[in-house]
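The authors assume throughout that readers already know how a fold can be written as discrete tokens. For illustration, here is how one protein appears when written out as sequence plus structure tokens:
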Amino acid sequence: MFCDICRPHALEFEIEYSTPENRQHLPAIHRHLEELGLLVREGDSSHIVREAAMKGLLDYMEQHMDTAHIRFRIDRRDAWRPVSEASGLVDAEWIDRIIDEQAVHFHVQPIVDASGSVYAHEMLARFRNEDGDLLSPFPVFEAARTRNRLYALDRVCRMNAVRQSAAVGTRVFINFVPNSIYSPEHCLRSTVQLAIELGIDPSQFVFEVVETEKVKNQAHLKRILDYYRKNGFRYALDDIGAGFNTVETIREMRPYYTKIDRQYVTGVHLDPQKQKVALDVLEATRFTGGVPLAEGIEDEAEFRWLKNAGFELFQGYLFGKPRPIAG
């Protein structure tokens, strides 16, 4: 099956003008864009233009047209949107460079056992802009969502994490966004092949579901996790807490590792409500034979309470901050 969702391509904007006053501008606009090679197709009340035309065209619309009666879409399968939203897509074009150049590297943060010995490392994606300045992951992933590039960005991060894990020397936790995977058999095949090529035992990789509580299609997530399991990889559920279906999710997905949300870790030794959530997560994880992991630990008292309660793995600034991969 051919699929190009992971390969960013230049966007084309289909724009529709719904009033006679707006449409009277189209002949001049069409002549200008055609001369520049930016007009894909023209119609009586609409046109399709290359993305390179959009900044100038949006400026023109703002100055001379009624933008309240102009709408656009970038794919015929998409819903029409107000043209006021188009600038967000254009402004986020920089994410395409990061994906095309695979401009991602990783920092690692230790995960320790009850004795404080390093058990694994979580690999945390880091990005830089064209000037070399460090970018926060949040705007990077938001830009990818805006331009429908989340699928491509997640793959770039996942594949590069596998490549760079060879220099870590321990089991690694690698984040992935389940909503970015259409079909595990197709979307994850390259990940499996890369691990085989590198000669790394699949059990050394733990694929960590981020934003677990936001996954609406539990059946789809289960198919992804089943695919990982069948190929020898392990997986973890992240951000587990007091959601109404927390216990059910753990029992249904049967993760190798369950990460309790850090909001229930901070100050847990002082808060009976947080303690109850922690114990509920612990019980559900033990029921399925998984390993309970507490993240976001910054205080020795938090670590002591969680260890005494029965948590087995721990992560947080108390044990080490994220750092570049050595070598």
